[in-house]
Amino acid sequence: MKEIEQIYFNDFGVAFHWKKNDAVLKDRIQMVFKETGFYLSENEVKDFAKLIDEACRETGCVDCCHRARCHKFLLKTPLKQVDLAVSKSELMQIKDLVEGTIFTIQLLNYLDITCKN
């Protein structure tokens, strides 16, 4: 198994960079959740966050008699050909994973720049 550098995780999934020959490959982020893996650029992860926010606004569970207990709905991904069938609970866990990943990457980038001075 290849080595990884973990970025963020929760009970639903994990985000990490692959390592090759002791070098961390930071150009792409591997996200694994719901038996699915995405290998995305940082911009694609940010696009995914926007799609998740849009899906959260559109779920409209407040006025629904099922109150977020519905079976599944489609979540768009940065890959135009791929949508995911997720429950409201899964959506919230994916949202946490994506937002936590973005936060951690931005924090590490900031610390990298600050420490170089």
Can you put this structure into words, describing what you see?
- This protein has helices at 42-58, 88-116, and strands at residues 4-9, 13-20, 23-33, 36-40, 73-76, 83-86.
- With 117 residues, the chain is of the alpha+beta class.
- The protein has one domain (4-116).
- The strands form two sheets. Strands 1-2-3-4 form a four-stranded antiparallel β-sheet. The chain has a two-stranded antiparallel ribbon with strand order 5-6.
- Strand 2 and strand 3 form a beta hairpin.
- Helix 1 (42-58) runs antiparallel to helix 2 (88-116).
- The chain is elongated, with a radius of gyration of 16 Å.
- It starts with a strand and ends with a helix.
Cross-sheet strand order for the largest sheet: 1-2-3-4
Rg computed from alpha carbons, rounded to a whole number of angstroms: 16 Å
What composes the largest sheet? 4 strands, antiparallel
Mean pLDDT equals 89
Low-confidence stretches: none
What is the number of helical segments per DSSP (H or I, 4+ residues)? 2
Protein structure class: alpha+beta
Distance between the termini: 36 Å
Percentage of β-strand residues:
25-35%
State the order of secondary-structure elements, H for helix, E for strand. Answer: EEEEHEEH
The best one-word shape is elongated
Helix content: 25-40%
Q: Tell me the number of structural domains.
A: 1
| DSSP summary, beta strand count | 6
